[in-house]
Write a structure and sequence with these properties.
336 residues, mainly alpha, two-stranded antiparallel ribbon
Length: 336
């Protein structure tokens, strides 16, 4: 039987002053654990987008009409608020699950040996984005689901996915200087692809803001734009992203690029095709809620796939600390 280690008053004081340093001094996670923690944060960042979409698509956006409480008198939902209150309150509670996942990623990154400051900073960046988006989510409720704040809420969630994806990738790399695997023209082509994907996502929020799914059964302000026109612009941008992806794959094959960029580009192309099928089906079937929810999930997966293509264009080996050579050792010995 393993005894419980004694905790001295000094240990307790150290734990209160800097709990992360206290844990790091007593625990060294396996690299696989750090990768899984980063992946868990990424998965939850996508889940919170999907559940937020479920709130909107079920008309539960004002299921809890106030914030941070669910009502003026109750922190939680009440029976009188019905299923809409349950859905909205459940989404709010999932924010705590997201915080736990991000916190786990921060603790794992901080405790890894050797200590990697860049990895820990990425974890903290996620934390602050979550806090900012939680406040913005409260503002969305307080202003009655104003479509511009709803769009900003989704874009900030995309920013969270961005940081989480980068952290997940960095857990599988070293801290050495990045080395490009492809030439500059291909790098520029990928940046054009990233810019097109950003525009695609941004216009997608406008489609939602001007479309029929207002987020609540009450009268909710909509963006004063023609929904079908914006949807067609969204489709054009989607085709631009698909075309750039196919052209990138063709160029990578032509120059005999490494397997990493090729595989990531192929994965992006397949995700885009799936997302395109869902998008067209939902358009011609009057936007059924299930398909719109799948399309929101696909939006997150497309953005992750785009980022993985960008990150696959370079490699980062383990950082090697130079050791003094024979000449340096001789000089040190002479000085001694």
């Amino acid at each position: 039987m393993v005894g419980v280690p004694n905790v001295t008053p000094a240990d307790a004081v150290a734990a209160v002053r800097n709990p992360l340093a206290f844990i790091a001094a007593r625990w060294t996670p396996d690299p696989r654990t750090v990768r899984r923690a980063a992946l868990a944060a990424l998965v939850m960042s996508v889940v919170i987008v999907v559940t937020g979409g479920a709130v909107r698509l079920t008309g539960s956006g004002l299921g809890c009409p106030t914030w941070p409480k669910c009502t003026d008198d109750s922190l939680t939902t009440t029976g009188a608020m019905g299923v809409h209150g349950v859905i909205e309150f459940t989404n709010r509670m999932l924010t705590y699950v997201l915080c736990a996942a991000v916190g786990w990623a921060i603790v794992a990154a901080r405790s890894e040996k050797p200590y990697r400051r860049s990895l820990t900073r990425l974890g903290w960046a996620q934390f602050w984005v979550v806090m900012g988006n939680a406040i913005l989510g409260g503002i969305v409720v307080l202003v009655g689901l104003n479509p511009y704040t709803v769009a900003a809420h989704f874009l900030l969630s995309s920013a969270l996915i961005t940081v989480a994806t980068v952290m997940w990738q960095r857990t599988r790399e070293g801290d050495g200087a990045p080395r490009p695997l492809v030439g500059r023209p291909i790098q520029q082509m990928v940046w054009f692809l990233v810019a097109a994907a950003v525009l695609l996502i941004a216009v997608g929020t406008v489609v939602t803001g001007s479309g029929p799914h207002a987020g609540d059964s009450s009268e909710v302000e909509r963006m004063p734009l023609d929904w079908e026109t914006v949807s067609k612009l969204h489709a054009v941008l989607a085709w631009i992203v698909v075309t750039l992806t196919f052209a990138l794959w063709f160029v990578l094959k032509a120059v005999d690029a490494p397997a990493g960029p090729l595989h990531r580009t192929r994965e992006l192309f397949l995700v885009l095709l799936s997302q395109g099928v869902i998008g067209y089906v939902q358009y011609f079937t009057n936007l059924p809620e299930v398909l719109v929810g799948l399309h929101m999930l696909g939006s997150g997966l497309v953005w992750i796939a785009v980022l993985r293509v960008l990150l696959a264009l370079r490699e980062r080996p383990d950082q090697v600390i130079g050791l003094p050579g024979p000449a340096a050792e001789a000089t040190l010995g002479t000085r001694a």
